[in-house]
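User: Quick sanity check before I run a bigger batch. Here is a single chain. Can you write out its predicted 3D structure?
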Amino acid sequence: MNFPELCALYYRADVMVVTSLRDGMNLVSFEFLACQSQKGTKGALVLSEFAGAAQALGAGALLVNPYNVAEVR
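Assistant: Done. Predicted structure follows.
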């Protein structure tokens, strides 16, 4: 899949779930938000508190503990 096709999927998505158990600075969350900013209604980002992007995007994402299954549901 090329990048424009991926951006189209991010644009159409209502929710993005990134539940990394351990991660550096993953750009998927940033790409999703950048694509969402082009439309009127924005999708929700559910992000692992262990993802590197959690510190940068904390206020703009729903932070969850991926080890807590009930919290991720």
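The chain has four helices and three strands.

User: Great, the batch can go ahead then.
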